[in-house]
Amino acid sequence: SDNESKQQSVGIVGAGLVGCLAALAFAAKGYTVYIFELRPDPRENPNPKNLRSINLAVSDRGIRALKYVDEEMAERVLQYVIPMKGRMIHDISGTKQESQIYGLFGECINSIDRSFLNKVMLDEMTSSDKIKVLFNQKLIKLSQLTNDDETPKMTFLDLSSKSEEKKKEYEFDFIVGADGAHSQFRYQLQRFSRMNFQQQYIDMQYLELCIPPNPNSKEDNTIFSIDPNHLHIWPRHNFMLIALANQDGSFTSTFFSPWSVIESLKSADDFVEFFRFNFPDAYQLMGEESLRYSFDHQPRGSLMQVTAFPYHSPNGRALIIGDAAHSMVPFYGQGMNCGFEDVRVLMELIDSNNHDVKACFKQYSQDRHQDLLTICKLALDNYYEMSSKVTSPLYLFRKKIDYFLGKYASGRFLTWIPMYSMISFRGDIGYSDAVKIEKRQRRILNNIQNGTLGALAIFTAVKVAQYWHKLKN
Ligand code: FAD
């Protein structure tokens, strides 16, 4: 009951996107929350290197979870997103752009500034009397996670403390790890539970680039130099470039390539040449100077996937969520969305289990595992789709039928939802259910495709026979 939750405390590690939402969610249910963050308060110490905005795509699952936790906050956040209604494919000549719409009924994914979203949630937490936010706290140890009657203990290094003794210990009824892909919380949890764990690097590096606001904004009547309402993709099979719009008219762009490609570019000069050849229009938009700067100074990252199971401690008092539990490659734009969904799924369990949090943490592992494995795999597969398939005629043909069936043929006897729509716009369908539905649809699509190809073959054969007949006579 709510009364019971008022007596109970929750300690959360990591004030990233997922940790913040979890803190707000527990507080809304009446728990006393402490949230610990390694870094200093980003609102007080804006990092000069990070003045450029980094955006990400928020879609239905993320929005649903935000609304579940705080409808009013969600509305406030949604005022600042830029809707993207489809992909815009840029070809290698630099002159042709082709739009591929995402939603059947005008649904969009949305570009949002990562640090803005984080700031809104931090402000919300600081103004709540149920939440205490502590920055500069580095988790180094977890203990007391085995027996039912033990309450978990967390040890932090207080990086802001001037004294010799920086270690501080805290005890809570429940603890949650939301400390990201390289989670210390998860590592500590592994000392107590028989957790299966897999970390897999993919041969892909990313480099952040930037398209500045439109220099001719007055004449063109827009601050954007390309359409802001699309996710722009320059697919080049082996590597690709993407760009998402920001409120200020700029675009955050990311170059993805295998290590061998990017490492073969030894200097900024090499990179600029490579770029001019492969992405001529993007080269024009970014300018040589900015490309050089990005090559030498902008952050580069490797991409990996982390899967784990179970997510809870043996005594059911600790749980990992977000990237700490499932880090996926960014190609479906679902990492944060899925982490937000973790929070909603957990909270709904807590509601339906009358606040028996221990039972819920255990249940959560069972209920959530298949969905998390599924989205990690889908994210990996989607790289192939974005970087190559979007230009293949057969893919486009199937997409057209898929779209047509979804839009016009869905009715009482047939429900047809394209895969992308299920993942991005239908948070009411679990990730693994989406795959089951897609399998059935793919079988039908194969039949249609084979049928069409078959019909085409028969038609051609008849024509050839008629022609042959004519020649003979
Ligand atoms: P994080 O954001 O990593 O936060 C973890 C927090 O824990 C950090 O603040 C960190 O400082 C803190 N911490 C770490 N260690 C400790 C410690 N020992 N003690 C205390 N605190 C600690 N997702 C989408 O939904 N849409 C997208 O379009 C999208 N695009 C992406 C593009 C790229 C290039 C990448 C790399 C990812 C993208 N993602 C996207 C994924 C998304 O960024 C992550 O899924 C999301 O940030 C995970 O949030 P989190 O809170 O779980 O972890």
TrEMBL record:
<dbReference type="InterPro" id="IPR002938">
    <property type="entry name" value="FAD-bd"/>
</dbReference>
<keyword id="KW-0662">Pyridine nucleotide biosynthesis</keyword>
<dbReference type="GO" id="GO:0019805">
    <property type="term" value="P:quinolinate biosynthetic process"/>
</dbReference>
<keyword id="KW-0560">Oxidoreductase</keyword>
<comment type="function">
    <text>Catalyzes the hydroxylation of L-kynurenine (L-Kyn) to form 3-hydroxy-L-kynurenine (L-3OHKyn). Required for synthesis of quinolinic acid.</text>
</comment>
<dbReference type="GO" id="GO:0005741">
    <property type="term" value="C:mitochondrial outer membrane"/>
</dbReference>
<keyword id="KW-0274">FAD</keyword>
<dbReference type="GO" id="GO:0043420">
    <property type="term" value="P:anthranilate metabolic process"/>
</dbReference>
<dbReference type="GO" id="GO:0071949">
    <property type="term" value="F:FAD binding"/>
</dbReference>
<keyword id="KW-0521">NADP</keyword>
<dbReference type="InterPro" id="IPR036188">
    <property type="entry name" value="FAD/NAD-bd_sf"/>
</dbReference>
<protein>
    <recommendedName>
        <fullName>Kynurenine 3-monooxygenase</fullName>
        <ecNumber>1.14.13.9</ecNumber>
    </recommendedName>
</protein>
<keyword id="KW-1000">Mitochondrion outer membrane</keyword>
<dbReference type="Pfam" id="PF01494">
    <property type="entry name" value="FAD_binding_3"/>
</dbReference>
<keyword id="KW-0472">Membrane</keyword>
<dbReference type="GO" id="GO:0070189">
    <property type="term" value="P:kynurenine metabolic process"/>
</dbReference>
<dbReference type="GO" id="GO:0006569">
    <property type="term" value="P:L-tryptophan catabolic process"/>
</dbReference>
<keyword id="KW-0285">Flavoprotein</keyword>
<feature type="domain" description="FAD-binding">
    <location>
        <begin position="9"/>
        <end position="370"/>
    </location>
</feature>
<keyword id="KW-0503">Monooxygenase</keyword>
<dbReference type="InterPro" id="IPR027545">
    <property type="entry name" value="Kynurenine_monooxygenase"/>
</dbReference>
<dbReference type="GO" id="GO:0034354">
    <property type="term" value="P:'de novo' NAD+ biosynthetic process from L-tryptophan"/>
</dbReference>
<keyword id="KW-0496">Mitochondrion</keyword>
<comment type="similarity">
    <text>Belongs to the aromatic-ring hydroxylase family. KMO subfamily.</text>
</comment>
<dbReference type="GO" id="GO:0004502">
    <property type="term" value="F:kynurenine 3-monooxygenase activity"/>
</dbReference>
<comment type="pathway">
    <text>Cofactor biosynthesis; NAD(+) biosynthesis; quinolinate from L-kynurenine: step 1/3.</text>
</comment>
